[in-house]
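Troubleshooting log. The previous structure file for this entry was overwritten by mistake, so regenerating from the original sequence record. Sequence copied from the archived sheet and checked twice against the printout by T.R.
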Amino acid sequence: MAAQLDHELIALAASSLSAIPDNNGDHTVTAAARTSNGLAFAGANVFHFTGGPCAELVALGVAAAQGVLAKDITTMVAVRRDEGKIRVLNPCGRCRQVFLDYNPDINVIVLDETGVQRTVPVRELLPFAYVYGAGGETVEEVATA
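Regenerated output below.
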């Protein structure tokens, strides 16, 4: 069952993006994170050709700098500008993996294939995800089966 859509969290991410001038290419995405007790944190991406951090990771860092770890985050959302409007942006693969690694119970607000905003568990965004240290069959076991 999908969690309820957190409109206030989307609004926080959107207001953070609205504070950045439209023509600023260094910060094109903002994100917001909510904790189980209602605290919210926002962050902006830092675009750089060397691969700057995504807004979602900055929001997690802002929360950590205030004593809130990713294990306490319940919901994440990112937004971007699209033809003058601010819209929800689905997280990239790296962010999905970070969410899963830091807190596999995080819910993420996304746009589904029809463009509708939904809240889904991060596990749904990464089926067959890489799990560090997970066991499984060895190559030899598969080859001899």
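The chain has five helices and six strands. Archived copy saved in two places this time.
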